[in-house]
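Inputs:
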Amino acid sequence: MALLQLENLTVRFGGLVAVDKLDFAIEAGTIVTMIGPNGAGKSTVFNAITGIYAPSGGRIVFDGRTISGLKTSTIAAGGIARTFQNIRLFAFMSALDNVMTGEHARMRANVLDSLLHTPAQRAEERRVRARAFELLRFVGLEHVAEQYASNLAYGMQRRLEIARALAGEPRLLLLDEPAAGMNAAEKHDLIELIRRIRELGITIFLIEHDMRLVKQISERITVLDHGEKIAEGLPDVVCADPKVIEAYLGAPA
Amino acid sequence: MLFGAAIVLPLIFSNGGFVNFLSDAGAFVLLALGLNIVVGFAGLLDLGYAAFFAIGSYTFAMLASPQFGIHIPFWIMLFLASGVAALFGILLGAPTLRLRGDYLAIVTLGFGEIVPQTFLNLSQWTGGPNGIGSLDQPAVFGFRFGFQVLPYYYLILALIAVAVLAANNLRTSRLGRAWMAIREDELAAAHAGINTTATKLAAFAIGASFSGLAGCAYASKLQLVSPDQFGFNVSVAVLSMLVLGGMGNIPGVIVGSLVISSLDRFILPQLTNFMHGIGVSIDLTNSRFMIYGIILVLTMLFRPEGLIPSRQRRSELRAAGDAERAEQTLYTEAVP
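Outputs:
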């Protein structure tokens, strides 16, 4: 069974239909990319999955459970993590604290533990801190652990955001244009990082415009235009689809 | 070390007036530490914090005075009053959860006005404008605090120690990180699995509970509560303490509140006396709000991060300044 299933998903803003009756599934363990022209509704799909928008119609099923209508934090705790198109780190917290915050939902300490710093709380803090360090090492940022997120270079901020997302031990990772603004070397590292994340058993669903990168890592591609799915399948097949070319370049005269 | 100094201080300056001043200033330190959790840690601007001070004080006054003939021991009242204040923190927090920044500030401002008015008008229970007097005094092992100042001073000092410890523990915990994450980016915090509703309510409740402690200590020392002690000016004074001292930073907040308190109780009356001495008849104590205002404006102009800022806040404001300067440079470059 698919890990994530969108059934007839519709998101409307007033009269505007941003996502229109989208049916779509992601198998566990795969890397799937969603492409489409600007304004096609890609980020809206992400926002619907993570509970920022409640769907106007249809439903979203994750791992056999309907998650549409749940709170964002509940969905995140349930195993869906994401990064943002415009990086949204906790700018004035250290890189380490950013990742530790990502582990929030995996921690048990309640208000009283936090207030009293009970032995259990301190043990948990140590464990979480060690794991956050491990994740920083995983994305190659252990040397800037104590730096503020806002002081990091752009490419590092992108990787830190991924580390924070991984801290929640997600089963599905949504990456919203992870390569945006990156140079060739950074993109190369990113591809390698995404592959290593998949090896951890995490399913990856990304939005990306860089077609070279998309073709290199995606196992399947879905194309969205005006909120509707216009093509889906293997990268080479999808990219040769006349409907896709038309959506990007316009109809032939 | 500072704490040690605070313990011996009244023994050196045995002047009752000075110790009395320190005790009152201490109550405001407690308030500032509480407001710092809401505004400094969680980034929720609260302009009606005095309301919780009022609720804490009145809870004590109603349950430990001849008013209803109920005399619950002071030490139990500390917990009870904090609990009641925390409960009202949640009651205020719940409807304002969707509000941010200025909208939140206005709702809390309204709450801060409503609460003292309510105490004023519920005169059958609260004694109306006269308030409630002859409040019970704390006792330790049969020793009643009576009307001496020194025991209250040590009581408030002990409460501050507890409050500092609590605030610091919270800051370096799961909950503290969640507050800061919400302050930095609420949406990203929700995506990190933080229940923003519960976390913000916790900030309101815990912040309010500190003023419950302050309320008990202050009311029992003064032996009186009345609605005019908890006006908007108190909320503004406490917020000024945070801004002046350094929002989010515990030592900064303490210093800020001591500076404002001494200004209010010491420096302005002394200056007024001095002015009278040289034949200028201005009463500076009447213009304290103008002076708070001037202090706030000067702080914002010359040291926006406060006297003793947290590392965080300093870089935050510096970054904002850099961005502004960068914009200005761009602008000047664009104009030939």
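Remarks. The interface with chain A takes residues 166, 169-170, 172-178, 180-181, 184-185, 187-196, 202, 206, 312-313, 315-316, 319 of chain B (CB under 8 Å). The first strand of chain B starts at residue 64 and ends at 65.
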